[in-house]
């Protein structure tokens, strides 16, 4: 459940508790056929979109949502967050649907979690644990698994009392994907040792990344990082730009492990494009900390592409959440192009309104799915990069130097060419680093 202030959601009451979902995990490997969810009374568009986002988080974890409950009250109950009356209502819903998981769209304190566990005949998990569960199911590389396990342990450390039994078991349902391999017990010392070990392993990952980055930085190849809210279409746009064929999914947090792919811009300059994990409202701090090694690609990028879902009713709120994380990474001042994605889902009137609302020199409007305006975005990236600047030069190359001529045509934009005897005269626009390798052919 989520407690939201009056000023943030523009509600008629001064505060609000929201969004409890009783959920069942489906055993259907092809994905469950979700039941229709009754309409949720809402006081604002942001509230409705927030409920839908929370439901989509539950689905991404593999849940089949049986019922969604909303609570409004002046202030949260300090003991249970929701009070005994709502607990009785949830107990009835659990019995009606035979549900065994209750998910709160709110971070619960350790004491609240314990009391709710005592009162409800179902497993209780909060928003952070739900997101960690999704990350655990999507982590594919050793690096991603290390970072997810570290975040899980840091979350679970203050919640050891009466939770040890479930921690030490590997489960098959939501909130039961524990770290697992080490059969963790409730002893704080053992968990602390495991956290220290994971930090040491992640430090090794960071060292390897640093060494790889240093080798890359020996050549003037800029890194451009895609950042944005989860499910904004970053991976789809990444594929449209690079033809890399990475996983595209409508599920939240489909991309956990960073993807790097070389890309040649219209100027023939090469860059490295990085696809990163998506951000979300109330992203757990433990995840930002644990995924620091992954997010170093964002910290080192010369240019950020902030990919925004132009079709989302929460577009502006999502922007604020992304900017919070970027500020935490200390990259909020980094040169950034706002990329409004999914414009193919907008009507002509909506497009015109979007352009009027958001247009500036650092804005692009694209569809990663259809490829609309992708080439214009490449031009925009080209213009925004200052690393390895594009220079105009005149070259005089003997026709016997076939390899040089081929390299020029592959790595430079030929503006003009003419032939004089056995010489080829070329006027080109090319990266300064490339022209530096062929100084001997520059016309005086």
How does this model look, in words?
The protein has 4 domains: 2-125, no CATH class; 132-200, no CATH class; 219-384, P-loop containing nucleotide triphosphate hydrolases (Rossmann fold), CATH 3.40.50; 390-441, Alpha-Beta Plaits. Helices cover 41% and strands 21% of the residues. It has 16 helices and 14 strands. It has a 6-stranded mixed sheet with strand order 7-8-6-9-10-11, sandwiched between helices. Strands 1, 2, 3, 4 and 5 form a 5-stranded mixed sheet that branches. Strands 12-14-13 form a 3-stranded antiparallel sheet. Helix 5 (127-138) runs antiparallel to helix 6 and helix 6 (142-156) runs antiparallel to helix 8. The protein starts with a strand and ends in an 8-residue tail after the last helix. Residues 1-44 and 162-170 have low confidence and may be disordered.
């Amino acid at each position: 459940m989520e407690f939201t202030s009056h000023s943030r959601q523009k509600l008629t009451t001064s505060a609000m508790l929201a969004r409890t979902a009783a959920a069942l995990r489906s055993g259907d490997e092809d994905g469950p056929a979700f039941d229709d969810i009754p309409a949720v009374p809402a006081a604002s568009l942001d509230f409705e979109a927030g409920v839908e986002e929370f439901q989509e988080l539950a689905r991404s974890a593999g849940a089949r949502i049986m019922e969604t409950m909303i609570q409004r009250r002046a202030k949260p109950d300090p003991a249970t967050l929701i009070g005994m009356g709502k607990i009785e209502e949830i107990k009835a819903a659990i019995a009606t649907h035979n549900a065994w998981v209750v998910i709160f769209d709110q971070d619960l304190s350790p004491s609240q979690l314990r009391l709710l566990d005592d009162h409800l005949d179902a497993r209780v998990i909060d928003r952070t644990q739900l997101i960690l569960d999704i990350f655990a199911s999507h982590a594919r590389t050793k690096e991603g698994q290390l970072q997810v396990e570290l975040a899980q342990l840091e979350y679970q450390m203050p919640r050891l009392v009466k939770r040890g039994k479930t921690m030490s078991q590997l489960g098959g349902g939501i909130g039961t994907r524990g770290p697992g391999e080490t059969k963790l017990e409730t002893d704080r010392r053992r968990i602390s040792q495991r956290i220290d070990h994971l930090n040491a392993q992640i430090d090794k990952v960071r060292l390897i990344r640093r060494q790889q980055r240093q080798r890359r930085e020996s050549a003037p190849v800029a890194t451009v990082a895609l950042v944005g809210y989860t499910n904004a279409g970053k991976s789809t746009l990444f594929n449209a730009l690079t033809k890399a064929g990475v996983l595209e999914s409508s599920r939240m947090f489909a991309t956990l492990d960073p993807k790097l792919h070389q890309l040649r811009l219209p100027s023939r300059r090469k860059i490295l494009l990085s696809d990163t994990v998506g951000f979300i409202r109330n992203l757990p701090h433990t995840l930002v900390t644990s995924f620091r090694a992954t997010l170093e690609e964002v910290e080192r990028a010369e240019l950020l592409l902030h990919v925004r879902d132009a079709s989302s009713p929460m577009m502006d709120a999502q922007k604020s959440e992304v900017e919070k994380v970027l500020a935490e990474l200390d990259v909020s001042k980094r040169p950034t192009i706002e990329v409004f994605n999914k414009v193919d889902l907008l009507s002509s009137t909506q497009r015109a309104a979007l352009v009027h609302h958001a247009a500036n020199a650092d804005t692009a409007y694209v569809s990663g799915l259809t490829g609309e305006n992708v080439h214009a975005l490449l031009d925009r990236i080209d213009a925004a990069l200052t690393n390895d600047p594009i220079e105009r030069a005149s070259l005089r190359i003997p026709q016997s130097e076939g390899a040089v001529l081929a390299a020029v045509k592959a790595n430079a934009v030929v503006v003009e060419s003419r032939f004089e005897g056995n010489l080829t005269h070329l006027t080109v626009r090319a990266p300064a680093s490339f022209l530096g390798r062929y100084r001997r052919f520059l016309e005086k």
